[in-house]
Design brief:
DNA-binding transcription factor activity; Rossmann fold; Arc Repressor Mutant, subunit A; P-loop_NTPase; 18 helices; about 10% strand; 3 domains; about 50% helix; alpha/beta; five-stranded parallel sheet; Helicase, Ruva Protein, domain 3
């Protein structure tokens, strides 16, 4: 068959099946909200707290905040809401991700984003409000326009910091805030980022700067371990709890309503039992709810179904690995993940010496990681003579070894 015809027929069949499911499109997208609030549910207390922080900052009482929660809980969506809410008020706003970069690269990224998101127009010209500073702004922009891993050596960090201070103190209007939104801020909890956090000690106290960092529940503890003063610079912690059951149902309902064709019932094409299964199993984690619904619809399309029942949802969850074991793996660091996978390959239990030999790492390094994993409750240990064996928890065994290959605990 002609490949072009094959693609066209496949696309046409999907459109037909989607119509049978009473959907115009798959409404369960993981893309950020990007200013569209119709799918945003709950979070009333968190939004109120953010509003109070912004209101206080406008009157000189700046309290930087950490937005913390488990993976998929909605931290990035919350940052996105803050971005559009404050952008509409005319503040300078910068969205960033704390990827594994050097402090200097991060500062360059920050400076570049302040320029391009707030001072330069889409066409690259300077906004009229800032024309009096045009010469220096253009000088900065020329140096940064092609920034990357190899930053020009003639633009040292000291100069970057001076330029940042110039933009904040001389170019920005006093009545406006410079709001910095940093996602995946756990990346800063590394010794290599100590100098960056030290820079933040003074930078975050600048008048008119407000920072929201998003990360895991242990974000502030991890940052404080390598830089104790940072705790004073980020005094507010906004915890993102799971959605309630009512909010979980509302999340699904809103998205389906947006995609329904005329005449569709409330939860179509899902059966009532299927919706209950999703809400019960996904524990109020928005990303898990969205992924499960999306995969269920994909399975229904592949099989030509007109209804999504509990069995389809179970298949979707199995396909996605929506389980406690997978959640644990997502929570582990890469080094910790390597160790538990090595334990699985060695039969589910191993000594420090065995793991060190298997992974070609020093016993002290392996021992440190094992202690951390043990403290989190993800592995067990028991003594056999002179040897201490570490054993995988049942949840990790189910994922890494298989449900039919049980070890006696």
């Amino acid at each position: 068959m002609d490949p072009i015809e094959f693609i066209q027929k496949s696309a046409s069949s999907i459109a037909s099946t989607m119509h049978k499911l009473k959907l115009k499109y798959n409404p369960f997208s993981e893309k950020p909200i990007r200013g569209n609030t119709k799918f945003f549910v709950g979070r009333v207390s968190e939004l109120r707290e953010i509003g109070e922080i912004l209101g206080s900052a406008l009157h000189g009482s700046v309290a930087n905040a950490a937005i913390v929660g488990t993976k998929g809980i909605g931290k990035s969506s919350m940052l996105n809401i803050i971005y559009y809410a404050t952008k509409k008020q005319g503040h300078w706003v910068v969205e960033m991700t704390a990827s594994q970069v050097t402090p200097r690269q991060f500062l360059i990224q920050l400076l570049y984003n302040i320029l391009t998101e707030n001072i330069l127009t889409m066409s690259g010209t300077i906004k009229s409000d800032y024309m009096e500073h045009s010469s220096r702004i253009l000088d900065m922009y020329r140096k940064l326009n092609n920034y990357g891993d190899k930053v020009p050596i003639h633009y040292p960090r000291e100069r970057i910091e001076r330029d940042l201070e110039y933009l904040i103190n001389e170019v920005k209007s006093p009545e406006k805030l410079c709001i910095i939104l940093i996602d995946e801020a756990d990346q800063f909890a590394k010794k290599s980022c100590l100098s960056l956090l030290q820079f933040f000690h003074s930078f975050l106290y600048e008048e008119g700067i407000l920072t929201f960092m998003a990360g895991s529940p242990t974000l502030m503890d991890d940052l404080t371990k390598i830089s104790p003063p940072i705790k004073d610079r980020i005094p507010k912690i906004i915890n993102m709890p799971p959605l309630s059951k009512d909010e979980s149902y509302d999340l699904i309902r809103r998205r389906l309503e947006d995609a329904h064709i005329d005449g569709a019932d409330e939860y179509e094409p899902f059966t009532e039992n299927a919706i209950h299964k999703i809400v019960e199993e996904c524990d109020g984690i928005p990303r898990k709810i969205i992924m499960t619904c999306s995969e269920s619809i994909s399975i229904a399309i592949r099989k030509g179904l007109t209804k999504i029942d509990e069995n389809v949802v179970k298949e979707a969850m199995h396909s996605l690995g929506i389980s406690v074991g997978h959640q644990i793996l997502n929570h582990l660091t890469p080094a910790q993940s390597d160790i538990v996978r090595a334990m699985a390959e060695l039969g589910g239990s191993a000594t420090v010496t065995q793991l060190a030999e298997y992974l070609k790492k020093s016993p002290s390094t392996i021992g440190t990681h094992l202690s951390d994993i043990y403290e989190m409750g993800y592995i067990y240990k028991e003594r056999d003579g002179n040897n201490v064996y570490y054993r995988l928890s049942k949840e990790l065994r189910d994922v890494l070894i298989g449900e039919d290959d049980e070890l006696e605990m």
